[in-house]
């Protein structure tokens, strides 16, 4: 850092005497920022070429916009081998009023913090990053701003996001007790918003990004949560959003594009080997994947695999199996279904089912067909 400061005198290094965590650092950086527009970065994020000039153009086009965001390249080792996720809202830089934004919002609509340029005053106006929201503090902050003020979409990659199962956010997602505590806070916080903003969260279905975890919370703790909390997760949102045409944006776009490119190989393997196929993972991506898989008339799936089987024996009508219960000799394909933990899942399969073919979406080099 010292060498960087020598090369760029405008850079300021702010040191904490002790580690106070990510959320504290983001709030401190916000308060100390002298500029009007902020881009929040993690140490291993990769800034894509021309992203800053693209942001300048976006705010020049809509000077009073509170937030602008673009596409994200998810990668493991090199951004050049990564997978692009885009919301594909427009073919050119464009501002969307909140009413128009709601027409496009589907459950996998996400605003990665490293792909967002946000006005400092907008961040401060929603109270900054809430410490209690922990690894979802950026989601709460940016989603609130976007639904309240609208946003500008930039149709080009802004950031390269390294997929690391041991990152701050991902490592905590697997701690069910901690994750539930954070989701409980998010529900209470949004339910305490003013009615107009709270209703925008209802209409967007933004909480669906948390998949089965938020569904279980709202069902199991409905008596202790604020009245009306169930409206945060629309009934049968999967069917309403994905039973029509196949979306080619967001997570669904990544899944659909990959399956469409490999449909011949997948069908050929099933025809040749005639064994069972499973999906590994039981989160939001799997909810989306199951609808697209059916739409494309791909071979029948025998069930859902999870690393550690909990109390649930069913996922959207499919039986749930533990990884250790799967017979390698009776399985021809396992479809990896998790953005955050794809590499970890592949490592588990290398140990447990090394001869079984597998399909990945985000880190393509993990595919073995």
Distance between the termini: 44 Å
SS summary, helix count: 14
Reading the helices and strands in chain order gives HHEEHEEEHEHHEHHHHHHEHEEEEHE
- Total domains, how many? 3
Query: What do we call the CATH homologous superfamily of the largest domain?
Result: Spore Coat Polysaccharide Biosynthesis Protein SpsA, Chain A
Mean pLDDT across every amino acid position:
92
Known CATH architecture of the largest domain: Alpha-Beta Complex
Summarize the entry for a quick read.
The protein has helices spanning 2-7, 22-32, 51-61, 98-104, 120-125, 137-149, 168-173, 176-191, 195-204, 211-220, 237-242, 250-273, 284-295, 342-352; strands spanning 37-39, 46-47, 67-75, 83-85, 94-96, 116-119, 151-162, 276-280, 303-306, 314-315, 318-322, 331-336, 357-359. The protein has 369 residues and is an alpha/beta fold.
Q: What this model shows, in words?
A:
The protein has 14 helices and 13 strands. The model has no long low-confidence stretch (mean pLDDT 92). Strand 3 and strand 4 form a beta hairpin. It is globular and about 60 Å long. The protein has 369 residues and is α/β, with parallel strands linked by helices. It folds into 3 domains: 163 residues, Spore Coat Polysaccharide Biosynthesis Protein SpsA, Chain A (Alpha-Beta Complex), CATH 3.90.550; 61 residues, no CATH class; 117 residues, Rossmann fold (3-Layer(aba) Sandwich), CATH 3.40.50. The chain starts with a helix and ends in a 10-residue tail after the last strand.
């Amino acid at each position: 850092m010292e060498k960087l400061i020598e090369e760029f005198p405008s850079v300021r290094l702010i040191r904490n005497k002790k580690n106070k965590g990510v959320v504290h650092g983001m709030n401190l950086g916000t308060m100390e920022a002298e500029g009007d527009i902020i881009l929040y970065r993690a140490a291993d994020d990769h800034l894509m070429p021309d992203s800053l000039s693209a942001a300048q153009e976006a705010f020049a086009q809509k000077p009073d916009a509170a937030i602008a965001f673009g596409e994200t390249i998810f990668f493991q080792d090199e951004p050049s081998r990564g997978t692009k996720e885009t919301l594909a809202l427009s073919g050119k830089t464009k501002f969307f009023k909140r009413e128009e934004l709601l027409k496009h919002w589907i459950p996998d609509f996400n605003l990665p913090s490293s792909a967002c340029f946000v006005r400092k005053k907008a961040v401060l106006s929603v109270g900054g990053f809430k410490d209690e929201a922990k690894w979802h503090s950026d989601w709460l902050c940016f989603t609130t701003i976007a639904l309240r003020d609208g946003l500008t979409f930039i149709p080009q990659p802004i950031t390269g996001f390294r997929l690391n199962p041991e990152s701050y956010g991902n490592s905590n997602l697997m701690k069910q007790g901690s994750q539930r505590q954070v989701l409980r806070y998010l529900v209470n916080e949004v339910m305490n918003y003013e009615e107009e903003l709270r209703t925008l969260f209802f209409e967007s279905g933004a909480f669906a990004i948390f998949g089965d975890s938020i569904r279980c919370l709202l069902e199991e703790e409905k008596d202790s949560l604020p009245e009306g909390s169930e409206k945060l997760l629309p009934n049968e949102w999967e069917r309403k959003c994905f039973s029509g045409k196949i979306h080619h944006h967001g997570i669904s776009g990544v899944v659909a594009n990959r399956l469409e490119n490999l449909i011949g190989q997948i069908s050929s393997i099933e025809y040749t080997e005639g064994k069972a196929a499973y999906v590994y993972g039981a989160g939001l991506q799997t909810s989306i994947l199951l609808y697209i898989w059916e739409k494309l008339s791909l071979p029948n799936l025998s069930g859902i695999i999870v690393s550690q089987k909990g109390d649930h024996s069913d996922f959207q009508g499919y039986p749930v199996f533990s990884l250790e219960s799967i017979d390698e000799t009776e399985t021809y394909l396992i479809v990896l279904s998790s953005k955050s933990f794809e590499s970890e899942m592949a490592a588990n399969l290398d140990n447990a089912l090394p001869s079984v073919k597998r399909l990945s979406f985000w880190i393509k080099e993990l595919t073995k067909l």
